[in-house]
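Example 3.
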Amino acid sequence: MPLEDAIYIEQCKNGDSSGFYNLVNKYKDLIFAVILQRNIDRNNAEDLTQEVFVKAYYSLPKLKNSDKFAGWLYGIAYHTSIDWIRKRKKERTVSIEQVPNLNLGNDQQDADEEQKERMKTLHEELQELPEETKSILMLRYIDEFSYEKISSVLNLPISTVETRLYRARQLLRARMTKRECA
Amino acid sequence: MHKNIEKLILKSFENKLTQQEQSELNDHLLVCASCKALFEGYKRDDLLMGRIFKNKKLPPEFIENLKKEISSGIQRKTIINDNKSIFGMPIVVPIGLAAIFLIAFAGIFTYNYFFPTKQPSVNRQQTPMNLNNTNTSDTQISEMPEITAEPLKEKLTAELPKENKTAENPGSCTETLLVAAGKTWQTAKTVENVDTASVKQGSGTRFDYNASKEIRLDKIKGVKMKYEGFVKENSRYVLSKSESGAKNYYFEIIFPKKAEINRIVVDTGYWNYKGETYSGMYNCQIVYDNFKFGNWRVLKTYNKNKLLHLEIKEKCSTDKIKIEFRPALVIEERCSVTNNITTTNVYLGNISNFEVYGCEITK
C-alpha cells in the first residue's frame, strides 16, 4: 500500500493531479467514516471530507515521507473534525435517531426491535470508548482494513494493532455485557 | 468462561484460527454454555459493528465536487496572489524593503542626533609644501617671511621674557578674531569682546564664498579668539618654542553660541630649521568642545603634515574650536664625522588664516 501511495504522491508532485484523485478514491470512505464517527451528520461529514482532501491537496508538497500518507491524511481528518466540533460546540453524545450515519435503513427493516436497541446501545458504548480503541475498531470494520493498513494509518506496529484490536473487542463486550445484565 | 477459549473466539473473528484450534473451539462451545453465550455476544457485536461502520459510502459525485472545489480554490489563490503582488513580487517583499529602509533611516537619524560629529573628511588641498612654488590658496605663503634656523634660535631666546610675562598673566591672551582682509590677516586690537563685525573687512575674494547656507562663523558678532604660546608677527601668528616637557599651545576660536561647523580652512606658513622645512601645522590636531560631555573631541589630527593650505570638511556642533600644537622632533645637529644626529623637540606653529564655515544653531 505505501508503495502505491508513494507512486500516486509522486505523480501529484509532478503536476499530475490524477495521482491525487487516485488517493482520494482510495481513502475517501475511510476519511468519511472517521468524520462520521465523531457524531457529525452526513451532510456536514461530506463537506468536512471534502475540506480534508482540499487541505491535503495543498499540503501534499510538504509531505516528506510518502509512506506515511495514510496516517497523515487520518491526522488531517481527525483535526479537521475536532476543530469543527469545537466550533459548533455540539455535544459529544447524541441519540441514535439523530445519527443518520448509522444506516439502520434497509437492513434494519427486517431486524426486530431488540436488535435495534442493541445497535443503539453498542453505538453509545462505542462513543464511550477511548479514542485509540474506537479508531482501531472503526478502521477494522471500514472496508475490512487489514492489520497492515491499520498500522500504516495509525502509525503503529502490526503487533500493537493486533493486541489493541483484541483488547478493544474485549472491552466493548465487557461493557455490553454490563449493559445487558443491568 | 474459559480465558483460552475467549482468545480462540476473538481469533476466529480475525480468521486466524488453525484447523485444530477451530475444532477445539467448536467442541468446547458445544459443552460450555457460558463460552457459548460469550461467543454469541461477540458475534452480535461483530455483526452490529459491521453495520455501524460499513456502508458509510460517499456519494459518487464526491470526486467531481472535490475537483471543482480544488480548481476554484486554485483560481482564488491565483487572484489573491495577483492582488497581493507589486511588480510581480509578493506584497511582503516591498513591505519588507520599506520597513528595512524606515528602520535604517530611523537608526541613522537617531545616531546623528545623539552623536552629531564626524563625517569622513575630505582634504581638497593636497599641494605639498614647496618653498619655491606659490601655494594654491589665496594666501600667498611664499610671500611670507621665511624663518630660518638661526633666527628661530634667536627668537626662542629673545621671546623668553615675553613668555615669562604671559606666565605672570594667567588666562592667556584673549583677542577678538582677526578678520581676514584680502590675502592676509589684519591685526586687531587686544581687547576682549570686540565686535568682529566692526572690524574692517578686506576685499579679498576668498571670503566671498558662494554658499547660500554656509556662513563664515568666525566673522559673526561676538566671536573671540584665544591663543597660548603664539605671538603676532606681521600678519600671522607664529609659535616657536623649544620645550622639553609637554606644553599646551593652542589657537582657539570661541563662538558666542553653538554652531554647526561644516568646513574649516587653515592657511599656514612654514619653518625652515637647519635646512629642513616644516609646515606651520606640522604636528597638531584640530579639536572641538564636545559640550554634551564637557570634553574636547578630536576633529582632525596632523602628523608630520607638509601641507600649507588645509581645508577640512568635517561636521560638528560646538561653540569652541581650537588647534592644539604638539612638538616636532627636529634635527638639532648633525655630526660631520660620525654622522650622528642630535634631535630636539620644538613647538612649531604658523597660522596666517583660520576660517570656519557652517551655520549658527539658533535653538
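The CA atoms of residues 29 and 47 of chain A lie 13 Å apart. The radius of gyration of chain A is 18 Å.
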